[in-house]
Write a structure and sequence with these properties.
alpha+beta, Immunoglobulin-like, four-stranded mixed β-sheet
């Protein structure tokens, strides 16, 4: 599977998007992509019901990928996904980190997923985050614009009104 596909799939898995095809180049399905892994964990309604959708915390950081040649590439204008850690999102993260894709997430998960966009130097900040434990995920467009870095996922914990910095690098 092409590396950039993994980022899209992880974002969708964490955000609850329903259609891969709308995000693919040419608006068509990728023919060489393997079948999606069937979810084993059902959407945990009770677990998500305990989460606040908005809060007073901030998650900030910088997205960076180090190539095998030692070159640092900062994620300019990239989307960062921030999803609460649950058994449901952990399954999606594990599958994505293994290089596979998972079936689309339940749309209810998107109500609890936050996003940020990096600036030209890879810095990002997401505000109004509730207190809790989150997966912060993104990837970097590689030189040439045809491939993406592997998915970079970090887990962070944040309290009410606090700011946490995450080094989203690999």
């Amino acid at each position: 599977m092409r590396p950039w596909i993994r980022v899209i799939l992880l974002s969708m898995a964490l955000a609850g998007c329903q259609s891969v095809q709308n995000l693919m180049p040419g608006n068509s399905a990728v023919k060489d992509a393997p079948a999606a892994v069937k979810r084993q964990v059902a959407f945990p309604i009770a677990a998500y019901a305990k989460f606040d959708k908005k809060g007073t915390a901030t998650i900030k950081g910088r997205l960076m990928y180090m190539t095998s040649q030692g070159k640092r590439i900062y994620g300019a204008n990239e989307k960062i996904s921030i999803a609460p850690v649950t058994t449901y999102s952990a399954e999606a993260a594990d599958v994505a980190l293994s290089g596979r894709r998972i079936e689309p997430a339940d749309p209810r998960a998107s109500e609890y997923t936050h996003f940020a966009k990096t600036d030209s130097q890879g810095y990002f900040a997401a505000h109004d985050i509730p207190a809790g434990v989150f997966y912060v995920a993104g990837s970097v467009l590689l030189p040439g614009g045809k491939a993406r870095s592997p998915i970079i996922i970090k887990q962070v914990e944040i309290g009410h009104g606090k700011t946490v910095s995450v080094d989203l690098s690999r």
